[in-house]
């Protein structure tokens, strides 16, 4: 009896034999799934303690639990409060006292209710703070900016949409305290002009990334900006005060600049852009979306950018001769975006892709004039493509899509929304095969039959994101091949693809274990069987099933119990979902952030639901029509809602 007791005691303490380094190595492998870390910490007291010391990043759901959370995790360096909309000065005071010098990064981009008092506590006590995101803090004024200036070691600062901060506040940050800044975003800070930007450029010599989108600036501040010797990323999107004369200062040189975004700068033409050739010799990415027409003059002004790898011309009027001029560039581009460009034709696009054979990413969304000719040239010349977006290319016939699967085997992202693709397609040109005997001919015909349409796409085994929304010709047969062969799939969009039923979804759920997002909205033949099969996808975090009338509370309950990482759910117009489905959702889906639900015809519980949803950490509840769901189902689980992770 005594021997048995000793044996049991030895077996119960076997974890003590593991070294601390080995346990920490195990924890390092669990970063992808927070639930795994939670399970790890529950094994024993020693694991609980080790996990508390190992964790460096926290993303709390509720601010009232901050004292307990920070007490448990004393070595946190990054605190993400983007899921906590109510952060007060008291909350920031707790953080500054608990984290003190350990804290290096904090995200307050979706939080409000704090003032300069809380920010001053944070900046004063957390002396090692290097990153702070205050985007969308529309109530902050210059006094808050002065408080931020006390963070002397700050390197990254986001102030996007802080519309009440003016040049004076930015001056406090740049002149008084934050000389070590490497990144600052002033996007939509409408009170900041040339003076504030000049102060940043003069005083913060370490700046690498500068976002000045939609600021009322002119050419007065550009000379100082371009003197920044480490500047790599400059965003001037929507700066209407910038014109060709402003860019003339580029001739003085900005050799470190690698990315320039001048989207929606309507006063800049090829004349101003020609200054880039001599001034920005290291430029790798150029974004000119919704700007000047793509003409030979514009193309010629950029052709000497020898290091250019990516150009984005989204929304620009395009001429065939302009695209041909891009095709004649000596540099070999890796990324081209022509999304929503009017004037893209087979002749122009083909001249680009046949010359730039090293393309990795191509976006031709809504290029409605291209046909199978362009697809043939793309697939024949650019076999190394990893991303192809061609939504709404309505003149491309169904038989052309087979070429993508036959030739572009490295694709990781493919957007075929609103196209004519089907399961089978039609036989491709037989002249591509050499046929010597009847036996060989049979094999060739078999290959042509098997690898067309979605069946052909299934040969792209590295696909991780696939969009097939509004593809009315696809059915379960084609989707089955995707599920069997594309096992790395993480995102699948089947919006309004009416031919899809439970059979196709079942194959996807079985074959794609890494699936984290699926959209089956308005697939009217989908039933609870699909949701039950998707409940086995443990990584699923986004489910959009709007307008699926056959889905009931049974299927929703299965998803709630199986998909513990669910953060976004859309069940609008699922008229058979009621309290029986919402109760498991409130109980099991503790990471839910956004719920969209309209299924009744009255609004009796709307205001109550919106008032009570915070304990479930919901960012948004669309409860305009929630007559079939009573508020009572939410209340029993208020005490069970998590305040952690």
From TrEMBL:
GO biological process: SCF-dependent proteasomal ubiquitin-dependent protein catabolic process
Chain ranges of the F-box/LRR-repeat protein 15-like leucin rich repeat domain: 301-409, 440-605
Cellular component aspect of the GO annotation: SCF ubiquitin ligase complex
Stored InterPro entries: F-box-like_dom_sf, FBXL15_LRR, Leu-rich_rpt, Leu-rich_rpt_Cys-con_subtyp, LRR_dom_sf
Domain of life: Eukaryota
SMART domains, A to Z: LRR_CC
Protein name: RNI-like superfamily protein
Organism: Actinidia rufa
